[in-house]
């Protein structure tokens, strides 16, 4: 991933995608998947960027996440970036799960203590 950022490949593709899809919603960006990745591979070829299929498959989910974040950032600014970023944040997911299980503050602390003991 670092070499994709170092050469600006992710940022350049995200900028292009954002220019071509100005009216896209954040919900659509959140669900961009295989088509986005396929077109990103074509972009890497166009830019003559060497990234093996093995490297791509190994980093596929992170590449998708970074592309979604950068596209959202280009179209919606920081708020868009963090909307996508929070979708993938494991700590946020755990916190939401604990809050959903809890009907009172005491329940929340009880669930949090059980969760902490599992760690």
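^ Assign residues to that structure.
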């Amino acid at each position: 991933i670092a070499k994709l950022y170092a050469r600006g490949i992710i940022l350049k593709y995200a900028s292009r995608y954002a220019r071509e899809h100005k009216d896209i919603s954040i919900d659509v960006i959140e669900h961009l998947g295989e088509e986005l990745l396929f077109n990103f591979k074509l972009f890497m070829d166009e830019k003559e960027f060497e990234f093996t299929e093995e490297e791509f498959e190994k980093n596929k989910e992170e590449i998708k996440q970074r592309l979604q974040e950068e596209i959202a950032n280009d179209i919606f600014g920081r708020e868009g970036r963090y909307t996508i970023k929070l979708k993938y944040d494991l700590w946020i997911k755990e916190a939401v799960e604990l809050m959903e299980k809890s009907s009172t503050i005491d329940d929340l602390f009880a669930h949090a203590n059980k969760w902490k003991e599992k760690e």
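Helices lie at 2-6, 9-20, 26-30, 34-46, 53-76, 78-88, 90-101, 105-118.
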